[in-house]
């Protein structure tokens, strides 16, 4: 039985105690719900992979309370410090050289010499990180390959979520950003966009004063989860760039394309990102084929289209 726990002081203490005991629990972040475990405890990290049914080559993001703890785990340079100053706490993950004495379980990094880190902005996540007093490894709290969770109910669902497989969900309502963090790494010394996400690539490029390289993607050796071809998949089929519904399709609208339900009637990509996964969960529950209106590729539109293309990919 998976319990929903409120983020009041008593709830935070209970979740923190579960984490200290090596359990895995779902926690809210500003992007999506994460399946958190103590990043120093190999057994806890193995439980994350097991609960998600995640392939072990896919390393996890380490969540930290502040820059001081981040500097003890990873090596920063001028560019990563500038990005940290501009976007942390927030929906940016950076893949940086791992300090050998960081104390992070090797299963977190899948044995790589780098570590993905992020300081979440969500109040409940920050309070929990301070109460727990350690690094939390946390992928999105969905079964591997399924739609990401942006509400506690998505996590607790026994069929499409992790209900029954984890002891608890820290329930702080809907995630305000709604898509996973943007992942930046350095490839041959050049900053590269490893996954589009909650912070627009344009804003990152503006801080760096240079374009982000788009890394070559090898679908057999994904270095970011979204790089698995079929990810974020609903059970029903999904058709992109639809301007009207065919047969019994549920049309998900955007802007001028009205649809049965809309990602954003005003055509606002930020609002659309915040609703994306909840609307996909709901549309999927109807058991009808899904069609989605075109979304412009600018700002958070890039992250939305990335998730939609993967949800539509053949599997
Ligand atoms: O918004 C988010 O980022 C959410 C919330 C919970 O924080 N987390 C999330 O984690 O999306 P996850 O596990 O689904 O995505 C992390 C991805 C990994 O799949 C991996 O491909 C990439 O980050 N990653 C992690 N460590 C890496 C590394 N050392 N090198 C390259 N990529 C890495
Ligand atoms: Mg994920």
TrEMBL record:
Annotated L-threonine binding sites: 31, 63, 118, 138, 181
Coiled-coil residue windows: none
Top EC class, one word: transferase
Compartments in which it is found: Cytoplasm
Domain of life: Bacteria
Catalyzed reactions per annotation: L-threonine + hydrogencarbonate + ATP = L-threonylcarbamoyladenylate + diphosphate + H2O
Gene Ontology terms describing biological process: regulation of translational fidelity; tRNA processing
Ranges of residues in domain YrdC-like: 9-199
Pfam family, one: Sua5_yciO_yrdC
EC identifiers of the protein: 2.7.7.87
Primary location recorded for the protein, binned into one broad class: cytoplasm
Signal sequence region: none
UniProt family annotation: Belongs to the SUA5 family.
Protein name: Threonylcarbamoyl-AMP synthase
Organism this protein belongs to: Paracoccus laeviglucosivorans
